[in-house]
Amino acid sequence: MKLSKFRESLSMASRSIASNKARSFLTALGVMIGVGAVIALVALGNGAQASVESSLQSLGSNLLIVYSGQPRGASLVRRNTTNIVPTLTPEDISYIRGLPSSLVVSAAPESSSTAQVKFENKNASVTVVGTDTAYPDIRNFHTVYGQFFAEQDVRSRKLVAVIGAQVYRDLFAVGSDPVGQKIRINGTGYRVIGIMEDKGSSTQDTQIFIPISTYQRYIAGSSDYAMINVQAASPDTMRELQRVIEDSLLRFHRLPNMDAADFYVANQLDLLSTLQGVTGTFTLLLGSIAAISLIVGGIGIMNIMLVSVTERTREIGVRMALGAKSTDIMSQFLTEAIILSVGGGLIGIAVGLLASWGANHFLGMASVVSLGSVFLAFGFAVFTGLFFGGYPAYRASRLDPIDALRYE
Amino acid sequence: MIHLESVSRHYKMGPTTVKAIDEVSLLVGKAEFVSIVGPSGSGKSTLMNIIGCLDSPTAGEYRLAEEPVARLPKNRLAEIRNRHIGFVFQTFNLLPRVSAVENVELPLIYAGVSPKERRQRAMEMLERVGLGGRETHVPSELSGGQRQRVAIARALAVRPEVLLADEPTGALDTKTGSEIMALFRELQNDGVTLVMVTHDPDVAALGKRIVQIRDGKVLLDVPVEEWKR
């Protein structure tokens, strides 16, 4: 089509849109909502994915956990990690620590059990975690006040405790200094030496950390560990490291294969990909629901365009009598549909961006607008105009001028 | 200018064939003013549609300005209409929400005339039909006679050789009607070929030649003086 012809169609179409503003707006509204919904919902889906990934990242980077017990699939965060019968031995951990630095950065044992903690007349239910000094770095979980226990404390089975943020809130008055205070866990007195950072997680913030040696003597009475936290050297070697650990531990424990194992290894990558799969499906689901509304918007355009063609049958007849070819009529109505859908699409983008900003700003929902979804939604809107405007425009162009002129 | 040779237009209606016009031959020279008369159902509208290239004959030959047009495809017919024929309708058929000058510009759009030249020519035409100064009015702001003048200006905008008028005074009072007819005469003097369809003998008598149609056939084709007698 020549540029001048295109300009004519454009000006004719915009004039007819302007002549019926309310109807044009309502027609475009369907596309507006569709495009806005696609952008906003995909942004929320992406936001959910990003926040899942970042909370997983907060567990520690390149984390791999060896659990005692029967294999249960690739779950990094077991439903219940406390009170596990420990099967991991000191030899296991020293073997892992001895692996080359191209595979392993460090490893920390961990055993835990639920317990009651008392300070003065206050009580709290907590998880007592026995571990060693490598733990904070591996799990990316540090003290905000005071310090974590030192090598020396572990070696000499000191009765010291580092309390979680929620434990601090439960036991101590706001602003009071807990360091140096004595708390009692299952009747044994411990000196508080630090407070862990607030992770905003009810599991992590209700923990009390004590040296693993102290734990084994006063709480568990076993020299084995429930878990070993391992920080891998890089994501690329994580799966290799997992295989090495599985093979060696099977050998140490004299077990034939992983099906019979009394331990299992979970790694962050597998969990990440599982969660990404879940949130990806979630995003796709939201996106498809929004896409349906876009189709409904398109049907709205088709409906109005059909009405408009019927209403303007006489006009079409006059235009044809005056020399309009069927392509002229076709392009006039098609242009009209495209203006409506593109206009609706552009406003829809603004609505979508505003909605995802609002969800983030006022509702605190994570939202990440992806450029791809903006282009996709907009492209779909244009396609909607072409597709759903195409049929009415075709009908208009096929009218017989004599019948059209006679139409009442 | 208009040369019909044994032109027929038959419609198939189930098992029967309706002969809307049958073997009509008609020769209209340049700057003639022909009135086609006949009762309703006589086939005069069909004849008009064929002359106007809105419809194609099922048999016969039609040459418009020396060009055979009987069997042209629709898009070519649209071009022929645009270039050679101006239409004036009983009910004016102006676009309702569009100003007078924009209505007149309409055929020029399809002729591919640039917007600037379009506007200028449309203004000239409105001036020509005596509507200078009314160009921004929309049809609802104009009287019936003024509307028909806009329609005539529109029909003339592309400077066609032939002006086809279908009951041009049918929706007008007598006085306005005769003003429109006077305008037609002027146009004829300027060299425009006029073909008018009407069932009103008084209006028909304002033409120079009368073609009477009955049952799809030409019953009479005489100068107006002879017909009056």
Could you please describe the fold and organization of this structure?
The complex is a heterodimer of chains A (408) and B (229). By secondary structure, chain A is of the alpha+beta class. Chain A has two domains: 3-54 and 274-406, no CATH class; 63-233, no CATH class. In chain A, 56% of the residues lie in helices and 17% in strands. Chain A has helices at residues 3-18, 21-57, 90-98, 135-139, 151-155, 165-171, 202-205, 212-220, 238-252, 268-311, 313-321, 326-361, 371-397, 401-406; strands spanning 63-68, 104-119, 122-131, 143-146, 160-163, 182-185, 188-196, 207-211, 227-232, 263-267. Chain A has a six-stranded mixed barrel with strand order 2-3-8-5-7-6. In chain A, strand 6 and strand 7 (188-196) form a beta hairpin. The longest helix of chain A has 44 residues, at 268-311. Chain A is elongated, with a radius of gyration of 33 Å. The two termini of chain A are 32 Å apart. Chain B is α/β, with parallel strands linked by helices. Chain B has a single domain (28-53, 74-228), classed as Rossmann fold, CATH 3.40.50. Chain B has helices at 44-51, 74-84, 100-110, 115-128, 144-156, 174-189, 201-204, 224-228, and strands spanning 2-13, 16-28, 33-37, 59-64, 67-68, 85-88, 162-166, 193-198, 209-214, 217-223. In chain B, the strands form two sheets. Chain B has a six-stranded mixed sheet with strand order 6-7-8-3-9-10, with helices on both faces. In chain B, strands 2-1-4-5 form a four-stranded antiparallel sheet, covered by helices on one side. In chain B, helix 3 (100-110) crosses helix 4, helix 3 (100-110) packs parallel to helix 5 (144-156) and helix 5 (144-156) packs parallel to helix 6. The longest helix of chain B has 16 residues, at 174-189. Chain B is globular. In chain B, 47% of the residues are buried.
